[in-house]
Design brief:
18 helices, 395 residues, 70% helix, mainly alpha, two-stranded antiparallel ribbon
Length: 395
């Protein structure tokens, strides 16, 4: 989940030569907030049992597919890696990346481990055959601390303790690769080498998409349920070399797209947003793992193009405070919402069994309460980490 949507692409003249200044893209910020909310929606599986058709239909035809928007975050991360590049040494570069994401990742893991011990120890939840304190339990903790758990193709590992954090495994590896690749992609002093590197990145990206598509067809054809989730969805190799590299490729070619130069306009922006949502509806009727392989690359690229200039009628709407607020807490919302939607019925049950029964039987109200609490909790977490960061700097 990228933290900060800003471009290092506006040239300004200074006494020492030409430098670059930051330009914040508010539309991208709003889009990542909407994508994070879409991922949150996909986890509200209890809505399919809702008595009111409104909620069950919303979940069936739109909300349950929201997890596909994780692909947007990876594509956006690759795209911004090119535009936000600063020529710094590796230590400073990786320290800055870790400073942005690791404190929350680590705290979430510790909280999840504590809850796992407490809830399993008291018999409130049943374990998945992984007893606290066992060797495999400690192995999962190590994978969580090192942010490498998505590279282990076992659901009991890549979804261990805190499921959504598997996302960080591919992201941190991509950041390391980006430090070696992006300087060569943006090296205007050596145009020939720059074009060669850009071509290689595009070829690797295309190859990754083809391989992933083939794997998805094989998994569906052979009905390989045991590996379906990891191969077709989590797969960090495809996330890095497919989606992240796609974002880098688009960034390198952005100056060649007329749609990006002209800003797309309100009509184009509305058309692309409608297209992205329409695909969710189509997926409800046309199933297949291929949806996780390459189909969503098209709306992802189009979204980057039509909102690149951050202008237009739809962009003006996305500049509104509610959308910007959602974008500002998108990382925290992604990383903490599981505690709310999983913990709310447990908390109600601990307090009063009748409250828990009421919450479970009123799926629509449960969803609204969960969404509000998840967003409020994300905001509180952001405030705490922001204050902690400022206090650390002041010392």
């Amino acid at each position: 989940m990228v933290r900060g949507v800003e471009f290092m692409e506006e040239a300004i003249k200074t006494s020492n030569g030409t430098e670059l200044k930051k330009r914040h893209n508010l539309s991208y910020n709003a889009l990542r907030g909407m994508a994070a909310l879409g991922i949150f929606f996909s986890h509200m599986s209890y809505l399919k049992e809702a008595q009111m058709p409104l909620w069950s239909n919303l979940y069936e035809y739109f909300m349950r597919h929201g997890s596909v928007y994780s692909s947007f975050f990876y594509t956006l991360s690759g795209f911004l890696a090119v535009y936000t590049w600063k020529n710094v040494n590796f230590r400073d570069y990786i320290a800055k990346k870790l400073k942005k994401i690791y404190p929350l990742v680590f705290c979430v893991l510790i909280l999840a481990v504590m809850l796992d011990v407490m809830l399993k120890g008291n018999g409130i939840i049943n374990g998945e055959g992984i007893a606290p304190g066992s060797g495999y339990w400690w192995f999962n903790i190590i994978m969580g601390i090192t942010m490498l758990k998505a590279f282990v193709p076992l659901k009991s590992t890549f979804y261990s303790f805190h499921g959504p954090s598997w996302y960080m495994s591919a992201l941190i590896v991509f950041y390391i690769l980006a430090w070696f690749i992006v300087p060569r992609l943006t090296d205007g002093a050596n145009r020939k080498r720059q074009e060669i590197i850009r071509t290689k990145i595009a070829v690797v990206c295309a190859f990754a998409y083809v391989v992933q598509a083939i794997l998805c067809f094989i998994v569906d054809w052979k009905d390989l349920e045991d590996i379906r989730l990891w191969v077709t969805y989590v797969n960090p190799y495809f996330r890095i070399f497919g989606e992240c590299f796609l974002g880098m490729t688009v960034a390198c070619c952005m100056d060649r797209f007329k749609l990006a130069k002209n800003g797309g306009g309100g009509f184009a922006q509305m058309a692309v947003l409608s297209f992205a949502f329409l695909m969710l509806l189509v997926r409800s009727f046309v199933s297949g793992s291929i949806w996780n392989a390459w189909i969503y690359s098209l709306p992802n690229v189009l979204l980057l193009l039509v909102f690149y200039t951050d202008e237009g009628k739809i962009a003006d709407i996305l500049h509104a405070k509610p959308f910007q607020f959602l974008g500002s807490v998108s990382f925290e919302l992604y990383m903490t919402h599981a505690f709310v939607y999983e913990g709310l019925p447990i908390a109600f049950g601990i307090l009063n069994s009748k409250w828990q029964e009421w919450l479970i039987s009123h799926a629509g109200m449960r969803f609204l309460i969960t969404m509000v609490l998840a967003i409020v909790f994300a905001r509180m977490v952001k405030i705490v980490f922001t204050v902690a960061g400022k206090l650390k700097k002041s010392k």
